[in-house]
From TrEMBL:
Record bears the keyword Transmembrane helix: yes
The protein, known as: Recombinase RecR
Keywords: Membrane, Transmembrane, Transmembrane helix
Origin: domain of life: Bacteria
Transmembrane segments: 17-36
């Protein structure tokens, strides 16, 4: 028995995965920039 995924369902899954990856990338870059900024502030005399 073969189970098929309809095109609209597959497109919705790919769109959700893309949007989630964009959100996670933005969150990771924001956290990384915050960490770098705190390290730079700690090194100042």
């Amino acid at each position: 028995m073969t189970t098929y995924i309809f095109f609209d369902e597959a497109l919705r899954m790919l769109t959700n995965a893309y949007l989630m990856s964009v959100v996670l990338l933005l969150a990771a870059s924001g956290i990384g920039l915050a960490v770098i900024e705190t390290i730079e502030k700690a090194e100042e005399p």
